[in-house]
Design goal:
Length: 433
């Protein structure tokens, strides 16, 4: 049977109470409990508080010691059965864990940044349970970016955040730092806060102590109202009919635009379009990049014409950065120069700024899928469009639908005109009768 003895080594006040754990002849180890006491109150001979100690003090110390006894015995029974090495290091580590005391500043059970770093490292060989795929390199890079940002904030605050420090006070200070000092947009801050919340909830899931503030509705951030640009059908026709015979790079970029706006593919899937199966009238994709969906997309007449023009060959592969540069030139040449409200990155600050800009400057590859959804919305049922865009929820799909203020005005004017025509027709019928 295991024996536990509690004693002190020094006469200085306060003194640390030590524990000695003995099990048979093979196990005899000791460690500091980090329970501090005035040595005048303790009797090593009795392995207990002295009789004259007041009841309140006795109750306080005995409850702590009894709790620690139970933890040691319970952990020994499990760890010994599991074949773990039982020694003084084991006992010391067990006590630190019980009191949630970090072993060092890189203890991922206690500190926030080390936890994220460990989670990011593990994610390199982790499977996303929703998709059955490995966590993407891009996602892991986002984790590491968050680590870098929080480390910089820690330096400014001159502290290392524990998991329990991620509370509403942290939220207030960190969002102010991101907004006022780093000049981040509300949408970027919302993404960062959402990711931080995910890390803390993961730590809680693993049994580590966290602050309950993470569950609060206030631990969030409101996104900016999006100002997303898309190409309408008239603008797409201008691009399709543009004579670019003298410039192969721009002609190739124009063909990518046509493929993008009439297939509804994500940019990540458009990048690997050469892997897909083409029949006479459709593109067959066995598995989309983001959500592993199977999809069959009919070929639009402009896509068919582009393939015929290229002798059945797809546009040449090009980097997203180069494609986005060429897209703007193509759109400018096509006369898509209307000044509209949008967000454009300022090269000096590397931040997007809201303002009025020529539309061609706001067009990039991410506009393709939005153009597909917006141009078909209201003309065919939403389920049909979602079957092509592979949106899983209608709420996510609706975020892609963009209609300009001018188009709303035109729709309302057209509706009123149609109503007036119906009234006139009815009046004529009355007069004839």
């Amino acid at each position: 049977m295991a024996t536990l003895k509690f004693y002190i080594k020094t006469k200085g006040n306060p003194s640390n109470i030590y524990v000695r754990f003995i099990q048979g002849r093979e196990i005899d180890c000791y460690a500091r409990t980090n329970i501090l006491i005035d040595p005048k109150l303790w009797s090593d001979k009795k392995n207990d508080l002295k009789p004259l100690v007041d009841n309140e003090t006795k109750e306080l110390y005995r409850s702590r010691i009894d709790e620690l006894k139970n933890v040691i015995i319970k952990s020994f029974n499990k760890d010994f059965s599991d074949g773990n090495l039982i020694n003084s290091k084991w006992l010391s580590s067990l006590i630190d864990s019980h009191y949630k005391r970090p072993t060092n500043e890189n203890d991922y059970r206690i500190f926030f940044v080390p936890f994220i770093e460990k989670f990011a490292d593990e994610s390199e060989n982790r499977i996303n349970l929703k998709t059955g795929k490995k966590i993407s390199y891009r996602t892991i890079q986002k984790y590491r970016t968050t680590v870098k940002q929080i480390k910089e904030f820690e330096e400014k605050q001159n502290m290392k955040f524990k998991l329990t420090d991620i509370n509403l006070e942290f939220h207030k200070n960190y969002t102010a730092y991101l907004k006022l000092e780093l000049k981040y947009s509300n949408t970027m801050i919302e993404k960062i806060i959402s990711q931080i919340k995910g890390f803390v909830l993961e730590a809680k899931e693993r049994g580590y102590e966290v602050n309950n503030d993470i569950e609060s509705k206030k631990f969030s951030f409101a996104r900016d109202e999006p100002i997303d640009t898309f190409l309408n059908e008239n603008e797409i026709d201008l691009i399709f009919n543009l004579d670019l015979s003298g410039n192969e790079s721009l002609s190739n970029a124009r063909d990518w635009i046509i493929f993008g706006v009439w297939t509804g593919l994500r940019v990540s899937d458009l990048n690997r379009i050469h892997q897909f199966q083409f029949s006479k009238d459709t593109i067959i994709i066995s598995e989309t990049e983001k959500n592993s969906a199977n999809v069959e997309i009919p070929l639009h007449s402009q896509v068919k014409a582009t393939l015929e023009k290229r002798g059945g060959e797809l546009p040449k592969a090009i980097s997203i950065q180069k494609l986005n540069d060429y897209i703007k030139i193509v759109c400018q040449k096509a006369g898509i120069t209307e000044v509209i409200l949008g967000n454009l990155k300022n090269p000096d600050t590397n931040r997007k700024e809201k303002g009025y800009y020529p539309k061609y400057k706001l067009i990039a590859s991410h506009c393709f899928r939005r153009s597909f959804a917006s141009n078909h919305y209201g003309k065919i049922d939403d389920r049909t469009i979602m079957a092509i865009t592979t949106h899983k929820s209608h709420s996510q799909f609706m975020k892609y639908i963009k209609t300009t203020q001018k188009e709303y005005v035109d729709k309302l004017s057209k509706y009123w005109e149609e109503r007036e025509e119906i009234k006139k027709s009815k009046n004529k019928m009355k007069i004839i009768s």
